[in-house]
Amino acid sequence: MRYHILEELSKLTASGLKRQLKLVEGPQGPRVFINGNAVILLCSNDYLGLANHPLVKEAAKDAIDRWGFGAGASRLVSGNMEPHIMLEERIRRFKGTESALLFNSGYNANLGAVCALSGRETDIFSDKLNHASIVDACVLSRANVKRYPNKDIGSLETQLKKSKARRKLIVTDGVFSMDGTIAPLKDIVSLLDRYNASLLVDDAHATGVLGKSGRGTLEHFGLSHPSIIQMGTLGKAVGAFGAYIAGPSELIDLLISKARPFIYTTALPPAVCAAAIKAIDIIDETPSLREKLWKNISIFKKGLEGAGLDTMGSETQIIPVIVKSAERAMGISAKLLDKGVFIQGIRPPTVPEGTSRLRVTVTAAHTEEDLNFALSAIKEAFNG
Ligand SMILES: Cc1ncc(COP(=O)(O)O)c(C=O)c1O
Question: End-to-end distance of the chain based on CA atoms, in angstroms?
Answer without folding.
Answer: 43
